[in-house]
């Protein structure tokens, strides 16, 4: 019996295909991870390792996504990626370019760009593991390493996981005022934890959870406050639903993934044309030189 695909699924497929086509003509690089798009431009990062290209950063972002996010084959992966790929696109590029494309992609495809700017701190070999404090008492703290090195890729991907869990599990991961996470954070503030007054609730909660995760990953759970221990319990509860607890040393190395690069069509065409013209000109020059040589030799033999 022929399988009937629901209209809703057809609509999703159409949107995904149209989105893919748009991204391919807008960005230098496009990668599809279980229908979640990771895109980028070849903009040189301003704060990264020497001789790092935009393509390298884009490839490392893919590396971090595949390392940190739930395995596609996992039973809970369908719900996770269903919320992820219908709401977000992860993009690398300049501040102005990504900001310009944000509203366009949101209006046309109902997806938010999660940006990683080329001006951010992008030392992808550093796992944000330098913890020199003895207690977590301010949201302003970041695990900045020697010489102010930092890995914004790790932080961005992890907070994107939090956003996705927020959409998949509305009760435990609500970022709304007076819900569980807000109450936990507010009690910690009453006990002395500092938050800048300019922070929105969702931003504050994601920063708070990220800090606790960093402490857990670096065996500093004993330094967490009672309220922060509740966040640790939440993270442990979701270790099989999206929260990562293992970081491979491969992340510190150069990228080791299967390159699936889609260049802008106009760039590939231009490069192909340039290559053709270069080869064509070279062949023409060689033929011309051979022709001249033959004429010279004929004249020499005629004189003789």
Helix/strand layout:
Elements: H1 7-26, E1 29-33, E2 36-40, H2 54-68, H3 77-85, E3 88-93, H4 95-109, E4 112-117, H5 152-168, H6 180-190, H7 201-217, H8 226-237, H9 265-303
Parallel strand pairs: 2-3, 3-4
Antiparallel strand pairs: 1-2
Helix pairs in contact: 2-5, 3-5, 6-8, 7-8
Tell me about this structure.
- 51% of the residues lie in helices and 7% in strands.
- It has 304 residues and is an alpha/beta fold.
- The protein folds into two domains: 7-263; 264-295.
- The chain has a four-stranded mixed sheet with strand order 1-2-3-4, with helices on both faces.
- α6 (180-190) runs antiparallel to α8.
- It is elongated and about 105 Å long.
- Residues 1-8 and 255-278 have low confidence and may be disordered.
Write out key terms for the chains shown.
304 residues; alpha/beta; 2 domains; 4-stranded mixed sheet; 4 strands; disordered N terminus
Mean pLDDT across the residues is: 88
Strand content: 5-15%
Shape: elongated
Strand pairing plus helix content: what structural class? alpha/beta
User: What percent of the residues sit in helical stretches (DSSP H or I)?
Assistant: 40-55%
List how many beta strands DSSP finds: 4
């Amino acid at each position: 019996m022929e399988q009937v695909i629901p209209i809703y699924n057809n609509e999703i497929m159409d949107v995904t295909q149209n989105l893919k086509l748009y991204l391919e003509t807008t960005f230098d690089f496009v990668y599809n991870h279980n229908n979640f798009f990771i895109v980028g431009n070849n903009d040189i990062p301003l704060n990264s390792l020497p001789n790092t290209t935009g393509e390298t950063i884009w490839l490392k972002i893919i590396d971090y996504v595949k390392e940190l996010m739930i395995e596609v084959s996992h039973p809970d992966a369908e719900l996770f990626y269903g919320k992820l790929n219908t709401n977000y696109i992860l993009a690398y590029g300049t501040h102005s370019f990504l900001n310009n494309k944000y509203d366009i992609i949101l209006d046309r495809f109902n997806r938010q760009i999660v940006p990683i700017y080329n001006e951010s701190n992008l030392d992808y070999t550093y796992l944000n593991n330098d913890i020199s404090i003895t207690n977590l008492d301010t949201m302003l703290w970041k695990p900045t390493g020697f010489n102010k090195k930092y890995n914004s890729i790790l932080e961005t991907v992890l907070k994107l996981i939090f956003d996705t869990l927020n959409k998949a599990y509305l009760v435990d991961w609500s970022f709304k005022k007076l819900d569980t996470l807000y109450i936990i954070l507010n009690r910690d503030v009453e006990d002395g934890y500092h938050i800048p007054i300019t922070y929105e609730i969702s931003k504050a909660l994601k920063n708070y959870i990220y800090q606790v995760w960093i402490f857990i990953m670096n065996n500093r759970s004993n330094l967490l406050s009672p309220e922060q221990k509740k966040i640790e319990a939440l993270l442990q509860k979701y270790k099989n639903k999206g929260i990562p607890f293992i970081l491979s040393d491969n992340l510190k190395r150069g990228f080791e993934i299967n390159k699936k690069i889609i260049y802008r069509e106009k760039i590939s065409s231009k490069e192909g044309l340039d290559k053709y013209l270069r080869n064509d000109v070279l062949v023409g020059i060689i033929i011309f030189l051979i022709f001249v040589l033959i004429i010279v030799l004929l004249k020499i033999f005629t004189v003789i």
